[in-house]
Amino acid sequence: MTKAQIVAHILPMPAQDRRILGAAVALLAVLAILPLMASALVVDKLTYLFILIMFAAMWNLLAGYAGLVSVGQQAFIGLGGYAMVRMVEAGLPPFPAIFLGALAAGAVAWVMSWFVLRMKAGEFAIATWVIAEAIRSMVSFDPLIQGETGTSITALNAYAPEMRRLTIYLLSLVTMTLMIWGAWALLHGRTGAQAQAIRDDEEAAESVGITTFAVKQRIYVLASIGCAVAGTLWLASAITFQPRTSFGVQWSVFMLFMVLVGGIGTFIGPILGALLFFALQEIFGDFGAWYMAGVGIVAILFALYLPNGIVGLWLNKGRAEPLSMRKLLSQDR
Amino acid sequence: MLEAIVQGVLLGGYYAVLAAGLSLMFGVVRFINLAHGDMAVLGAMIALWFVQGAGLHVAIAIALTLPLMGALGWLMQRMIFERALQGGFLIPILTTIGLGAALQNGMFGLFGSDTKSLGAYIGNLSWASWEIPGGIFIGQLPGYMFLTAILVLGAVHVLLTRTAFGRAVRATATDSEAAALCGVDARRVHRGAAAIAVALAGLAGIFLAMRAQVTPFAGPMLLIFAFEAVVIGGIGSLRGTLIGGIALGLAQSLGAMISPQFSLLAGHCVFLAVLAYRLMSGAAAGRGGWRATISALFFHKSMLRGKS
Fold it and tell me: Which residue of A300, A301, A306, A308 is the best one to mutate when testing the B interface, meaning the one whose CB has the most B CBs within 10 A?
């Protein structure tokens, strides 16, 4: 079959998916005008939710679609934040620094990728974590950061609190939308198909001529930039940069929880996982350590008994995966 | 300088004990337990509870803690890890991270956040020292810990090389299907290995509680140290683990001479350098040796693509 013949056999998007997309567009429109009527608290909470969704979507791109289970994405959250702090210190306005800082973290991810992507799964998981720790130590040496004390982006205080809150909210909403749309385009394109082939069987993917390293590298760098943007947006709302918080392994635990509980390797799963994680944090967050212990136990139970997450519940009933990244071909040949 | 080297070597014994369990699990059960450091902290907390809460002597507390930790390892292998291992490479990583989060925060909820130490319960051992020729002082506690580490690792080595259980472990590690055909019950072997690994983690945690403080959230850092020692020394050999532990201890104590913050960074750097060297020499062997790789790097970039 020629390529054109295959393309002709690809089924159009299922009606169910089109309904989900329509609802998502309507929801985004509502979220865009929401700050006009919602309280400051709601706006802050929603900003945090958008950031969580970005983290989940990016980690899913890595682990769910490229098979790269990283426990070290906090390296880019911290690095992006550090680059932002440095850029603001050098006189750049804080809002452009959010994105430029993340790009700087992406450059480091590109350099690191030559090294870490050659490792086996378990090695990759811990080596990325050790690198995050090493970068944290180095960042703490910077006199500006004052060791563990950290520093505040005081330039952000120059803006009125209302205006700052609204800007960060809208930036987060737009970035999240672009990121999800970007992930959609990437996964529906050539890279997505190649990545899924590598994840399912690396040797077979190589034998049909996929340059596995280049595909993994592309996804690793993009997902790292994505995590860094989400991290710098979070930093812009938190204002204070502390190495221990920004480079903390808890970010990876959060990402893992959201993706695993939602449904790893599905498009919609991580978004559901982020919503659930956010809801749990709102309801049980006051219990502090016991809440986090509960999160750990829930993660174990999902990993052992429902490894496909919430979306898995749906799939187990024999229904089609919503927003599947697989291309469906019609039966008539 | 000489004193830092001696201290580094002695510290290496502690790291070797910490790393031995991780290495054993990785070699036999083919599985990286990301909650290994948290198990060590749990061992320390249990021993501390026996001493502070129940008022037992430290030696008795240790004698009670180690079998308890072994039993815990056996149970966890049976209840959690066995099931996780059926799910490919992803599920074990996710499960043990979740276990780590549950252990850290559970211990925080039970024991609080204040740092705890066994140092106050071991008499003058924590500061007493021997003087050796050359004016160097060796702390008695690090000295005894190093000796214990060698004895324990030696005992595990004898167990693995001289007993029927050890034969079964080695057979399962080499080829678990072939071992099963010869009548070795792989699940029993795995549970036994997990029991030894977690007991070793508990011992390392007790060492930590004697020489410094423990907090409920110390586990992830201990896991990193253990993993570094395992990778530096090479996976799957106890002698390698001891060498790796000593190399890590040396790097940290020499790094600490530059500045206190540099200590951990020096360890991380040695680990990353060893890992990079191993990856590159592996890649080089795949392309016909170092010389071919270097020529490929400079002249034939396309050769480097494709391989991952």
Answer: A300
Give pLDDT, residue A153.
86
Q: What is the Cα–Cα distance from A310 to A274, expressed in whole angstroms?
A: 12
Buried b (16+ CB within 10 A) or exposed e, A125-160: bbbbbbbbbbbbbbbbeeeebeeeebbebebbeebe
pLDDT-derived band of residue B305, with 50, 70 and 90 as boundaries? low
pTM value?
0.89
Provide the residue type at A45 as one letter. Answer: K
Percent of chain A predicted with pLDDT > 90: 49
Task: State pLDDT tens for residues B65-75.
Answer: 999 999 999 99
* pLDDT given at position B308: 40
* B95: nearest CB among A67, A141, A304: A304
Q: Which residue of B has its CA nearest to A121?
A: B89
- Quote ipTM for the complex: 0.85
Residues of chain A found within 8 Å of residue B89, distances taken between Cβ atoms: 69, 121-122
Query: CB count, 10 Å around CB of A204?
Result: 11
CA distance A191 to chain B (A): 15
Q: Which residues of B touch A205 (CB under 8 A)?
A: none
Please report the pLDDT score of residue A288 as a whole number.
Answer: 82
pLDDT, one tens digit per residue, over A143-173 is 888 877 888 888 888 888 888 999 999 999 9
